[in-house]
Design a protein that fits this description.
Layout: E1 2-6, E2 9-12, E3 17-24, E4 30-38, E5 45-51, E6 58-59, E7 67-72, E8 77-82, E9 91-99, E10 107-108, E11 112-117
Parallel strand pairs: 2-11
Antiparallel strand pairs: 1-3, 3-8, 4-5, 4-9, 5-6, 7-8, 9-10, 9-11
Length: 118
Amino acid sequence: VQLQASGGGLVQAGNSLRLSCAASGRTFSLDSVAWFRRAPGKEREEVASIAWRGINPSYAPSVKGRFTISKNNAEDTVYLQMNSLKPEDTAVYYCAGRKGGTYGYSYWGQGTQVTVSS
């Protein structure tokens, strides 16, 4: 499975961005996909996840109510809509896929930088 993340950029606080994670290869083996982020000097944080069927979204408390994860089943693409962005959302964002029947995320896309200016 290959994951290609895109959509990062520089925005002002209060604005929005949408990240995309396009999956290819043996995607039928996936159980779920998640977005993680890592800010400078901080540990990696799981931001949101969704089952590969596009159901059961979950969110970290820090983004709940502002971020929405969704999946386009026809295109095997997972989106992260980020609204009301804050400077503390600045980080490199990664998408990751978990193989069915396993624990942890085996597949990782390259990161995409999100920078929120105040």
